[in-house]
Specification:
Length: about 280
């Protein structure tokens, strides 16, 4: 049986979201987040902590490239809240818990459980919650958990803009977390951009099917695919700019507090040498 299409996971999702034009981007919300931005037929070398990678290539046409930002812990943080702390019984309960409060109460949760991925790439970072007071309750923690995903996504979007010079118009989303309305609204608010969810949410499988369909002639061209893509829901930004930037700066401050929490092996070795030298 001939193989008619061969795409990697995130590239297939980009294809399934029909992000065929330069500047179109998709973000997959799973246990981690993966944001890809179409940069056209010339690769853009990142200077801001992103990956420059192939998006797709169709037949003899020029290859299309993208910038990719990988975030390690997003949906996995909700699972951690459920499994390790027992604050919720199932993942969907986090939205109900987060809605018991109006804001995060000043708490910011940086989920650097195994270090930070894009755009920092700091393996020595570890998770932390900043801004705690006696006022903060489990509802605020739930909000901080959801907001962490949106803040990390904005950091990647900012890095993409610096690398490519492209100002994002709208963010196309897929994955399990897009069913969380509170998260998606906050994502739109903190990006100051519309966020959309397609009718078909399983975009990786869809993208693979689209590629194969093009190869065997089931679809005529990319226009056919674009006509087949449709929006299920749109979240529009509805946050004061001053509040948005204030929250983002507090997030950035919280992130810096997690840096170098554990020593890198080279630093540990150097410290041991210093101790030995002092002892001698």
């Amino acid at each position: 049986m001939p193989v008619a299409g061969d795409l990697g996971d995130q590239q297939a999702a980009l294809f399934g979201q029909t992000c065929f034009a330069v500047g179109e981007a998709k973000n997959t919300y799973g246990t981690g987040n993966f944001l890809l931005l179409n940069t056209g037929t010339k690769p853009v070398q990142s200077k801001n902590g992103l990956l420059t990678t192939l998006a797709y290539k169709m037949g003899s046409a020029d290859a299309t490239y993208c910038l990719e930002g990988s975030i390690a812990i997003t949906g996995a943080l909700v699972q951690w809240l459920r499994d390790n702390l027992g604050m919720i019984e199932k993942s969907s309960d986090i939205e109900v818990l987060a809605k018991t409060v109006d804001d995060n109460g000043g708490a910011y949760f940086v989920p650097a459980f195994s270090g930070l991925y894009a755009p920092y790439w700091k393996s020595s970072a570890r998770g932390g919650i900043a801004g705690l007071t006696r006022y903060v309750n489990k509802g605020h923690i739930a909000r901080a958990v959801l907001e962490a995903t949106a803040f990390q996504t904005r950091e990647v979007v900012d890095a993409m803009r610096k690398d490519s010079g492209i100002e994002l118009d709208v963010l196309r989303t897929d994955g399990g977390m897009v069913n969380n309305n509170l998260l998606m609204q906050f994502q739109a608010d903190i990006l100051a951009k519309p966020v959309v969810k397609p009718v078909i949410n399983e975009t990786t499988a869809l993208g693979a099917a689209y590629a194969a369909g093009l190869a065997v002639g089931f679809y005529k061209n990319l226009d056919d695919l674009c006509a087949n893509w449709s929006v299920d829901k749109t979240w529009k930004p509805n946050m004061d700019e001053g509040k948005r930037e204030s929250m983002y700066q507090l997030w950035k401050k919280a992130v810096t507090r997690t840096f170098d929490w554990v020593d890198e092996p080279a630093k540990v070795e150097e410290s041991e040498k210093e101790l030995v030298g002092a002892a001698n």
